[in-house]
Amino acid sequence: MVSKESCRNEIRAAIRQLSDRCLYSAAKWAGEQLVGIEQDSSNFTPSNTRFQRGSSSIRRRFSTNESISTPQPSVGFSQPPATPLPQEDEVIDGDLYLLAKSYFDCREYRRASHVLRDQMSKKSVFLRCYALYLAGEKRKEEEMVELEGPLGKSDAINRELVSLERELSALKRTGAIDSFGLYLYGVVLKEKGNASLARASLVESVNSYPWNWSAWSELQSLCTSIEILNSLNLNNHWMKEFFLGSAYQELRMHSESLAKYEYLQDIFSFSNYIQAQTAKAQYSLREFDQVEIMFEDLLRNDPYRVEDMDLYSNVLYAKEACAALSYLAHKVFLTDKYRPESCCIVGNYYSLKGQHEKAVMYFRRALKLNKKYLSAWTLMGHEYVEMKNTSAAIDAYRRAVDVNPCDYRAWYGLGQAYEMMGMPFYALHYFRKSIFFLPNDSRLWIAMAKCYQSEQLHMLEEAIKCYKRAVNCGDTEGIALNQLAKLHQKLGRNEEAAFYFEKDLERMDAEGLEGPNMFEALVFLATHLKTNKKFDEAEVYCTRLLDYSGPEKEKAKSLLRGIRMAQTGFPSMDMEHFPL
Amino acid sequence: MAGLTRTAGAFAVTPHKISVCILLQLYAPSAQMSLPFPFSSISQHNRLGLYLLSLTKSCDDIFEPKLEDLINQLREVGEDMDAWLTDHLTNRFSSLTSPDDLLNFFNDMRGILGSLDSGAAQDDQIILDPNSNLGMFVRRCILAFNLLSFEGVCHLFTSIEVYCREAHSSSAQYDESNDNLESLIQHDQMDMEKYIMDKATEEVELQKNASGRVPFHLHTPEALFKVTEGLLVTRKEKSRTNTKKAEATQLACASSSTVDDTLVDESLFLRTNYQIQGFLMEQADAIETHGSSLSSSSIESFLQKLQNLAPELHRVHFLRYLNKLHSDDYFAALENLLRYFDYSAGTEGFDLVLPSTGCSMYGRYEIALLCLGMMHFRFGHPNLALEVLTEAVRVSQQHSNDTCLAYTLAAMSNLLSEMGIASTTSVLGSSYSPVTSTASLLSVQQRVYILLKESLRRADTLKLRRLVASNHLAMAKFELMHVQRPLLSFGPKASVRHKTCPVSVCKEIRLGAHLLSDFSAESSTMTIDGSLSSVWLKDLQKPWGQPVFSQESGSRKSSTFFQFCDHLVSIPGSVSQIIGASYLLRATSWELYGSAPMARMNTLVYATLFGDSSSSSDAELAYLKLIQHLALYKGYKDAFAAVKIAEEKFLTVSKSKILLLKLQLLHEHALHRGNLKLAQRMCNELGGLASTTIGVDMELKVEASLREARTLLAAKQYSQAANVAHSLFCTCHKFNLQIEKASVLLLLAEIHKKSGNAVLGLPYALASISFCQSFNLDLLKASATLTLAELWLGLGSNHAKRALDLLHGAFPMILGHGGLELRARAYIFEANCYLSDPSFSVSTDSDTVLDSLRQASEELQALEYHELAAEAFYLMAMVYDKVGQLEEREEAATLFKMHITALENPQDEEPNMA
């Protein structure tokens, strides 16, 4: 059992240790989780209650399992705390360390590392290496701009990597390395492209010191498949649950990920991080309403948050909430306008307003800030499609795909763009790719079916197969059933056509829809049943048609007349049933 | 090369250019004197000038020589003052200790340029004309330097440091290398080791202070240690590796070894777009020429590096596609092809894109379709390929890209003609194409014809010379293989003259070869500066036969000679490839029409002139043809020796046909020697090769069963042989293999002849002759006539006269072009005819018979054809007996006995080839 209190203590110590080593983003993350732990009622402070009450009421409205109000017996974690908090190897930092740390805080990395050049304690060695690494990174970024040629960036590399790798591997061999050093070693190895060694080093690091979220995230970025993830030999610790949650999400196992977060919410019930991650997973499951509420809630607690807000803007975009989107964009822009997320939100806003050139400009800015910003590439592709600049769209989508080959939206966009250019056969490959990554989405199947159906290809059998898949995936827009019926009708398979028209009719009835599709289905069914001499059923459909005005009504009348004729005419041959 | 733009600032200052500037300063010092200090004569001065001119011309090349190479070249140019030149160069470099020195250096450079109004210059002063080549170069350097930001200057400074350090470590070895060869080798061996050690320690240092671009150096030690391993084996071997290295480092030649070790260091410098595109084009040619013998992983690694250096250079993806295509990796090839076109929209680096036509909006995706179609075809998905090509036709019509349309149609006809053999069913079932729709009622052959005509017409109007040429060749192939038939007119009134027309084949081939003369008109738009400028430098060095390179073995000389010629007329590889193909086609057509000497001559022309530029599969084909010729006309011994040579050369090529050839030869050999078991085994192996997991090769399958029938025939199992031949004939008919039909018919006639059923054989022989006539297969016809004559004789000796007449009609063809076996058979048959002719008396006219028999026996012995040889000797012995020359009779009889015993126990001399 891990109690909330012990969690809290662990995190408190960890924050101190992390920020002591200048691992600020890990410290930040830990801090967020610390206040995310539900306070014991015993030591409430007035400020705490105010902070937490504001959110919990709303949260309670939507949280599916009311774990907060109904405490379950198994709250907490069944595993014992496998890792005790490490003791600091020097209780009081040396003077040089203090100086180096202040240099580091002022971003004078080389100076910091120089100060620590002869220090042999593990902590000093780590800080020196880390500062050196960051100095190299900084220089690399600068060089990338300086050396940029007509063909893109030049061979800018972090020049410290080689020496760092040599030093750290030597340290590791002698065993004079702590978990932070292992983390840095993992990062260096990853940069050098040695993924498996990097994974091993990071695993070792998190096993000995699990509170360093940066190490977990590096590890997560190296887990590109579920097989790799399962092969990791990780000690049980509550931090592992966080890691698994985020790893599952990246591997598009959204329900597993949601389960993890729900589990974690027992302790970290007020964690913004968990809420944002849950929202992300829900977004992937297309639960937009729920996601919107979660984000509203999140913003109320943490009004100056920029992280993950691009996702929120996507939701608002999908719901076409112009005003809310503009409000969000304005707020985020005031907070920090040079964040890729902010630019992306503004881009979304302009896109919703139909000002595609401006949208592209903001997406471009986002990409300038982060060249590997996946969703900006994809969204920019969408904008170019809107602007009918297909080759630019294709380029943008392709870049998205090269950043992350699992991005089904970009594959889909590529297919769409090629289809627009009248190359349906070429487009099929891309649709196939997209479906490979998201086989349960009816929209993708319908897009592919339309490709097959196009007049250039005219491969109707294949189209039918795709529509069938779409129906099996729960086609929400109801295109597939109608198309299936029509295709069968075209191919002269009236029985199948009738079957699908009937199904389509059922669907429309259930959803309370009306329209030309309805008339079509009714007319077909009535005629079909009539020719098959099932007059009673045909009559039912005809009478339904009579409820509507227009040519269909006339058609229904004539059909009914025909049915009467047949009904009266046919038995006239039969003497027994002759009424007179 | 159209479609890529020369961007501003494409001329970057590199350490090599600074070297050239330093030398230029020496060449034209600003001081006033008629002959500057170190030069002893005007000619020496001029020589340096020429050398500098070539250096400036080649500065657009992708590879820049290292300082070490430059010093080597200087040594040859400078003769007695080389030490002074190199010293000055290195001193000048070592005096550049801070970025400020660079600034001053370029300020000084200004001084050697004359002012634009040249009137002010004095007579005895050497001043560079600012508009001359050298002057322009200096001005460009100065301008490029002035454009550099301070960061840029710093980067230049660090790369100069690396440039000098590399040279410094290896400069020692060349100091004493102008002595005799023996000492040179010893010194070199020592120095090479030292050099490598230096290099290795250098690496460590570099890594330690971590100021160099270390990752690129990490690869060098391995490569160099490999060199040392080679050095330590033997002296002889060592000199070879040394030459190799000298060659490799000498300059850019697009061999894989250069890719390996030169690019590693060269990536230090930023290259211009233009240079890289030129370089990539060379690489693409290399991939095609060497096929899969070029290691795909080495290309892959260098492409990876290039991509890291220049992520916006999309052509890398295309090269990767080519590479994967040649190493048969379907998925990677597809992936890279799509990626390339997604990024570049088909506008980067394709020479069929005209820059004038605006293509920014739609891109050139039809080219993507064309490439995709060809890729599917290559990987054996003809139906998929056809769908894609149909779409390509549609899209290029939609975007009115006639060029692409012409190419697509050509590709389509090629596809159909290849596929037409395998399937006669309509492949255009589901898709609809405006071009092919009119032809949907026609046979595949007719569709091919229409497509070819259409493509040819478009290519002609668009002046796509290469396409025109290859279309003509395709047309020639078509004419060769298919009976001319009036298109679209069937029924009783249509003419029934079924014949191929050799004249039109010849015409088409000639038209195809016109490309060479046409090319001069087009060449102006097609020059690839990247490769040509480097040739300049190479040519310049040639006249001064340097001692360093004189060790080059003689075998390479021939190829370098052609390379030299090649560059002189500057024919790009693709053109010479097409012309080469025309020669190969000529050879094939002569082979079919039955002129052995002409076929051989054309193949030889191909192998000597185009062997270097051709793709490996074409070169292999030429070798195959030559070896087959050897086997037919010179016997098996020579042929097997040649096979050995060819095997070494081509076994690495994927889908190598060498194995096939070997099996064929072994089979023939076994048949002739009467080793039927071996023959049967070879036959089965051939059958196995015909239907592999990849797919069924129809032609090979037909050949395998043809050979099976022959083996059965040799085993005297006539009914089985006839069965096999019959079913084979049905297959040929089904798949429209006309030429094979003729030979199957001939085989059937042969079977009936051997089984003693001459009457049954006659119709087959006649049918075969008529087939041969309609396809102009003269040699086959001659051999069919021979069989016919034999059949007549088989009907009784009263037909001997008729048989002899027939034979004499075919004799010119047989003797002029026939192989050993056919000639021998004809001779023996002639003798047989005479002997069975009742009006012929042996005693009076024995020489006629004996002459032919002697001829026959000689040829058969070369072939080791025991059965026929025995027959010849038997007849000989009989004739001698009749004439009464007993001694000769005994001799012939012993030879007869020898061949009979050899035939009866074939295992005695099991060929070592098997």
From TrEMBL, chain A:
Q: List the InterPro entries.
A: APC8, TPR-like_helical_dom_sf, TPR_rpt
Q: Pathway it acts in? A: Protein modification; protein ubiquitination
Q: Which Gene3D superfamilies match?
A: Tetratricopeptide repeat domain
PROSITE patterns (UniProt xref): TPR
The lineage's top-level taxon is Eukaryota
Q: Which UniProt keywords apply?
A: Cell cycle, Cell division, Mitosis, Repeat, TPR repeat, Ubl conjugation pathway
UniProt biased composition (Polar residues): 64-77
Tell me the segments the record calls region Disordered.
63-83
Q: Where is the Cdc23 domain?
A: 7-279
Q: Which residues cross the membrane?
A: none
GO process terms (BP): anaphase-promoting complex-dependent catabolic process; cell division; positive regulation of mitotic metaphase/anaphase transition; protein ubiquitination
Q: Which GO terms describe its cellular component?
A: anaphase-promoting complex
User: Which windows of the sequence hold TPR repeats?
Assistant: 340-373, 374-407, 408-441
Mind telling me which SUPFAM superfamilies this protein's record contains? TPR-like
Listed PANTHER family: CELL DIVISION CYCLE 16,23,27, CELL DIVISION CYCLE PROTEIN 23 HOMOLOG
- Similarity annotation: Belongs to the APC8/CDC23 family.
Its recorded name reads Cyclosome subunit 8
Taxonomic source organism: Brassica oleracea
